[in-house]
Every structure is written in C-alpha cells, then in structure tokens.
Amino acid sequence: MSTESDTCSEPLLANANMISEDILERGHARRMGHLENYFALLQRQDLYGNFTTYCEFESYVDTETLVPILREIFFQNPILVHTIIPKNYPNHEEFYLSEQYLEKPYPEHDYIKIVPHLGLNDIIINEQEEYRDVVDSIIKRFNDDAFQITCSLTEMISNIRIPICLPNRPNWRLLILFDQKTPRRFKHIVYISNHCSSDAMSGINLFKDINKGLAVLGKEATNIIIDTIDNDYSVNNNSRSLEIYDYDKDYTKFKRLAIPITERIDYRPNWIAMGKLMVTSMIMKYLVYKFKDSETKRIKEDRRENFHYNINIGWDQVQQLKTNLQRHKSSMTGFLQACLFIVLNESGVFKDRRWNEMGVDISIPNDHRKSLPKELVEEQYKYGANVAGSHYSFLISSIKRDQIWELSQYYTEVIQSADYNVGLGALMLDFVYKNQNVDKIITDSYLGNQRGGIILSNIGLHTDKSGNNKIEDDEKKPFAGGIKDLKFIQNVGTLGFSLVVNVCSTKKSGMNVCVSGIEGTIGDREKFNATFKELENLIRSYCE
C-alpha cells in the first residue's frame, strides 16, 4: 500500500494552465475516464499502433465539402476533436516511460479538452508534411493497384502512427485515397485512429454522418461551397487551410463532452467475477497454446512485419450463409470463430504444442453502446471508446471440421453469455488504480510474453436509412452516391495475441473479413496466405 506522499493526485507540470476555468465550466474539458485512460496508456507505453476503417462512396466527393460537414459533426460530438493534456509537456513521451512516472500511482487521470483551432489540413493526413513520404507511397500503391484496397495497401496504412497529446490536433486523421483521374475528388477515404477515445464504430459512424451531410448539402449546396474556394486550391497544396472552427469564436456551438461510459456502465467486477478472472488468468498463462518465437515487444522495437489477408463474401452469399446459420442456431461471430479454429488446427499450427498447451484463446470485443438507450447513444455516445471484451479458451482437441455446427452453436452461446467487463474492469477497482500505477500493471503484463491466440471483432452490418446504402434528407435531396463498402482493419500490437480478425458488412458489397497476423507466428507470407485462403474456402463452402 502506498502512502499519501507516494501517490501523485495531480499531474507533474500538468499544464493545468492550458485549461481555463471557463472551458471546464462549459464542459469542454474533463479528466479521462478509466477506459479512456487504458487506451491512452497503450499509446504512452507504445503498446498499440492504430486501427483503421475504410469507406468507399458510390460517387466522387469534393474534398472541400468536408469542411461544413465536419464542422457540424464536431459541434455535436466534441469528443472527436479532443486532445490529451499530458504530464511533463513537452517531455511527456520520455516521462511516461521513466521510472519516475511508473513507480507511483496516479489515481487522477490526465485531462482532455477540445482542440482550440482546427482546419481541414489538421484532419487530412495527406496535407501533413511529417507524413508526406508514406502518403505518397500509399497513393502510388493505390493507383498501381487499380484503385483497389489490397493487402499491400492496408499493411502500409496500418503502420502509420498518430501521436497523442498534440496541442492542436486530435487523435485521428483522415487519409484520402485520390486516383490520378480526379486529384481533387475521391471515393475512398480511411479513418486512422490511435484508439484514444475512439473505436471502430466511431470510424463507421463518422462515415455515416459524412454521408448524411452530403445528402443534406445536395448538389446545389455543394456547388455553392465549391464556388467559394480558390480555383487553384488543392488538397495537396498547403498554401491555405480551410478552417473548420475556431474555439474562441465558436465555443457556444459545441455540446458538452459526454461523461465517460465507465460512469454510465459499471465495469468493475464483484468478488465472484474476480475469482473467475484469476482462474482464467492462470489457464491463459499455463494451459493455452503459445506461438513460438513470438515474444511481445514495444511497437518501435518490434521489426517484424504484419501480414494481412482480406476476404470479401458477396451479399448474396452472405444471405445464404445467414440462412444456414439460422438453421443451426449460430451467430456469424460464433461461426467465424469455429472456422478460424478449424483452419488453424488443420494447417498444423498447433502440432508443436507442449503437453500442457491444451487450449487456444480468443477475445471477442463488445460494443457497449448496445447497453445504453438509443437516444442517449445518438446524442452522446456515437463516438468514443465505448467497448469491452471477453477472453476465453477452448480445448484444441474439440476442434473438428465435421462438428463445425456444434462448435458454432456452442461458441455462440458462450459469446452471448460472456462477461465482457471483468478484464478491463479489474483495473478500475479502487484498491488497484489508487495504489498501483496502471501503466506499469499493463506494461508488465503485456511485454516479454509469447503470443497467444486471436482477437475476433465483428462490428456488424451497416446500411443507410433507405436500406440500400443511400440517404435522403427531409427535403428529399439525395446525395447521388451513398456508402458502397466498409472495412475495419487493425494490427495486434503488443496485446498478447498473434492474430486479429475484423469483420464488417454492407448490403452493397457484402462481408469483409480482414485478417492481420505477426510475421513468423504462422510461418512466412506464403504459409500465412495459404492458411487464410483455406479460411476463405471454408467460409464460402457454407454460402451455397
């Protein structure tokens, strides 16, 4: 137990002077909640890279039309434009990794506040000089690949890092994938986030809200906006910045920051759940399969590549698959879990397991927006880190192809009854975060271990109001395009897993299953691709 003098309740050189009393009273600054602090510490300790959501619109979008659309989105959802006020700025990166910081508890989390000024070039990564080389390479790859979202492209984008604690920029960017035919307009756009106060649904909801904004603007309004822009303006020309807002002038238009979701939903486990967590932790440590030669390191220290394999199942095939799932009382996620385990088992991944490695583990994230009233979500929690996750292990000996439906049904039942809060909730217990440094707990737990199994994240089916991926506003002025396709992709970082599988579906383009794995855990790239080609074949065999 630490004494009062051992506990740092206020940030050292916390830059509290950067947050005025007026901003606090307006609700435009507050301390992070426990879950927000968890995702921030993953960045402080260099344990996680980024996640990305990809959107393809049916029709071309003029870049400059994003300005009025984003402006309204930000006023209604200020968590999107927050930054973190760090300890020991501007030497915060070194400080957070130092013994000086890690040896003491900090029960009061860092502040977040609305970024004071934002222009389009603060959001669009194409405009930012520090990313110039990688963006040029990405755009070239996109054009060389005939404007398709290929694995080589997503691997490049997944290596981009978005730093936290920048005074004038938020924790995410938009990457516009221009093609050579339309240098000022785009169909493909990517949301890149460091996961601070954001999750995959935040990226999806941003694209949906942009799509709604395009519908509201309509062609006539869009032309008016374009006419106000200098003819020589290009998104690749830094000579001018299209202002989205200036806080000093626009602060009355912003809503208050929503309170953290951990103040709406109690993640903290009771003693029975804590006991189960301790047993589960022992099982994970000693009885589940660990991929050999896969020691976890900080992102900057790990030189291994992340291999991607992206699967698309057309909507007609998805419909047939859903019919089969209903017949066998299985969810899509339960079925995909069964397919993953079967393919890994049949590919020989587990053949070198030790005598005690009897199980394979999997984590299933859960969107906690589903636990809140719809009106509250729409008003306050469309954006933010509003997730939790289960973590269970399953006997390898039970994984058999001829029992796929029995496995799918069983996994579905586990998913539906799982405790999604206990893992992260344990960090939120008073006796934990008030007496220990949470960064150190997580760092000691995550680093220097052999990697385990899979993260399987299915963020569901997404359609627009009309059901055909097109939006019409009250005045019946449709945006001629709508959303055609959505993808969700991330690497595993240092989270202790070897694979992450992200799933997202639309009626226009079907279901995207995007796999990312650490080099060497499933052999070389050829072995990796062959393994997940088998996964693709197995899924497709049940779409007939």
UniProtKB/TrEMBL annotation:
Highest taxon, organism lineage: Eukaryota
Family matches, as Pfam families: AATase (PF07247)
Record GO terms (molecular function): N-acetyltransferase activity
InterPro entries on file: Alcohol_O-acetyltransferase, Atf2/Sli1-like
PANTHER family the UniProt entry points to: ALCOHOL O-ACETYLTRANSFERASE 1-RELATED
Name of this protein: Alcohol acetyltransferase
Species for this entry: Arxiozyma heterogenica
